[in-house]
Structures are given as C-alpha cells and as structure tokens.
Write a structure and sequence with these properties.
Elements (H helix, E strand, L loop, with lengths): L2 E10 L11 H25 L5 E7 L16 E5 L5 H13 L2 E7 L8 H10 L5 E5 L5 E6 L17 H11 L4 E3 L17 H4 L7
C-alpha cells in the first residue's frame, strides 16, 4: 500500500579519502571527511524536522560496512544500500523502490546545507500540484529532485558531474509529460570555492577550515 512522502538522502560514508575528496586541497584529508560528517548530520536533522512520512539514508558502501561504524544515526531513519553501478543506476534503483511505496519522493544529497526543513516541506507540498520539483545547484547539477512517479530516462545516459545535468533532467521531465516546478538554485559544497557558502554554525563545527 502506497503511503505519503519520503525523503531519500544519498550519502557516502564520511571516511578520509572517500568523501568530499575535491575539498582535500582546502581542508586536508581528515578535514574533508569531517565536513562530510557535519553535512550529513545537518541534512539528517533537517529531514527529520520535516513532515515526510519516512527518511531513508541510501548509503555507499552498504549500511553494514565498517566504514559506517562511527556514524551515529539518531531518529527513525531507514537505511538502504545504494547498490552498484554509476550514479544514475543508484538513483534509479532507490527512486523506483521509494516510489513503489510512497506517493511523493524527494531525492537529495547531503551537501546542500541550505536545503532546510522549510524548503523540503515546500517541495513536498509542491508535489501535490506538480509531477516533479527540481532544485538546481549553481554548478549545473541538481540538489533535489522530487517525483510522484518513476521514469528511468531521468537517470540513464546522463553526463553526471557536468554543468548540464539539471538542464537535461528538466528537459527529460518535460519530454516525458511531467509538470515541473523549478525552484531557485542552491549551492552544493563540493569545491574549495563553495566553502564561502557554508553556514557559520556548520563551519564552527569543523576542526580544520580554509
């Protein structure tokens, strides 16, 4: 039986040399991993403050892997394995599973700290009137994709990690007959220059900063 809404957070284990590697020149190996942990904790807390029925953490590697041993998850969070393949394969797998059980699904990462509970709730509400909601990232990717139905074309043969991902995704949504609500863009904390957009309260939690 389909339920109401779910938020699926895609995250890598916040381990040195594995997460946020593009920030290593600015923060160091350990600092980049610590930032990944801070961002994940922040994202989980914001999601838990929403009215979503279920929060799902889609993990890489799988939840039972020792890489997650130091990550404490507080609250009612379902843990999924992202599985193998490229980003599109992993997004498609989790999106299909979530949409088989929930009427409205938000797919997000853990690196856009301005995606607050208020904005996430607004996206869920938007899906009452639109088939999809898309929040672009300023680098040309996207930070949030909200869906009411599954379409594999949104995830296949996509030039991931380029500045065309959001635009291509929006066009594919429209080509597939989705009504689309496009929100204002947000910043993903991926590159050293993105650190200027890191909220002060999160920066204060880092042992190493740029």
């Amino acid at each position: 039986m389909r339920d109401h809404s779910a938020i699926v957070i895609f995250a890598k284990a916040p381990q040195p040399g594995f997460a946020k590697t593009r920030l290593i020149p600015a923060l160091g190996v350990d600092g980049a991993a610590e930032l990944a942990a801070v961002l994940l904790d922040h994202t989980l807390n914001e999601c838990l403050a929403t009215r979503a029925t279920q929060i799902i953490l889609a993990q890489s590697p799988a939840p039972a892997d020792p890489a997650w041993r130091d990550t404490e998850l507080l609250g009612p969070i379902d843990q999924w394995d992202q599985g193998g393949g490229d980003l599109g394969d992993r997004l498609a797998r989790c999106a299909a599973q979530a949409l088989a059980n929930y009427e409205r699904v938000l797919l997000i990462g853990s690196d856009a700290p301005t995606l607050t509970a208020r904005l996430l709730d607004a996206a869920i509400t938007t899906l009452n009137s639109f088939d999809a909601v898309l929040t672009p990232a300023r680098d040309g990717g996207y930070a949030l994709l909200g869906l009411t139905r599954f379409d594999r074309s949104l995830f296949t043969n996509m030039p991931w990690s380029t500045n065309r991902v959001a635009a291509i995704t929006e066009q594919r949504l429209r080509d597939s007959g989705f009504s689309v609500h496009l929100t204002d863009p947000v910043v993903d904390i991926d590159e050293p220059e993105d650190l200027d957009a890191l909220p002060a309260r999160l920066r204060a939690r880092l042992p190493v900063t740029s």
